[in-house]
Amino acid sequence: MRKLIYVCIILSCVGSVTAQRKTFFSKSEFGLNIGQMYYIGDLNQFKPFYQSNWSGGLMYRYNLQPRLTFRLNYLYGKVEAYDKESSNALFVNRNLEFRSIIHEVAAGVEFHYVPFTFGKGNKNAGTAYLMAQIGGFHMDPKAMYNGELVSLQPMSTEGQGTSIGTRNPYKLYQICMPLGMGVKLAIGNKLTVNFDLAIRKTFTDYLDDVGSLTYANAKVIDKEVSDDASALSNRSLDGSKYGLRGNPTTKDWYVFTGMTIAIRLGKEKICFY
Fold first, then answer.
1. Cα 49 to Cα 92: distance, rounded to the nearest angstrom
2. CB contact at 8 A, 225 and 153
3. Which spans in the chain are helix H?
4. May I ask the CATH architecture of the domain 22-272?
5. How does pLDDT run across 17-63, given as a tens digit for each residue?
6. 197 partner at 20 to 30 Å CA-CA among 51, 134, 172, 273?
7. Which distant-in-sequence residues (6+ apart) come within 8 Å of 208 by Cβ?
């Protein structure tokens, strides 16, 4: 009987001095995301999910603590808009269009509404969160012209870089700030699923190749760039040189909303003290 008591005491002591130590890999997750991307700007000012396209990418997440997570992601998508589909007669007459592939890399943090931890049956295995990131993206706005997709940036459609231009050609690499919210759920000790919506603030008005209030002088563009560039600079149905082209006081945005499934890269180590 005395030996049995000693064994119980030893086991209870061992249980009290064991712990799980978190490692770099136990705090890390790698995942895939899929969802929809759309654009807001001069060719789509009000319609959520207008001309949205399937998008996807990769995500790495490092859980700094239960309320704070570092997040790095790559996103691939497409945005587009067409004046011919507008309900506004002025925009239909303007007759502009664009489409652009987006490659984005961004990093930032998730702020959890409640502490988040892995574990089956854990009451903290789900949370809502806010997301704030900074990153960069590549764009290349194009339009269909004479049966072919034409890159618009080299065309200087608003006179950029010509004798009448007040601006240099815009850059195809730009900065963005993804800002959004979502919900996250741990499935056991290995998987997480999250759904989020994040709007991308950009610092360019040329995601759609439209930024100037009025049309540039088509004759100068014809002479200094090309006749194709001149035709693309003003595609209005009535041929007016004095119509409104865009809104120079606002910047363009794009939005991604979707689901991410991530797998934890490791598990805690058991330590004895």
1. 20
2. no
3. 2-16, 89-94, 218-224, 227-233
4. Beta Barrel (2.40)
5. 444 567 888 899 999 999 999 999 999 998 999 999 999 999 999 99
6. 172
7. 39, 41, 42, 43, 81, 96, 98, 100, 141, 252
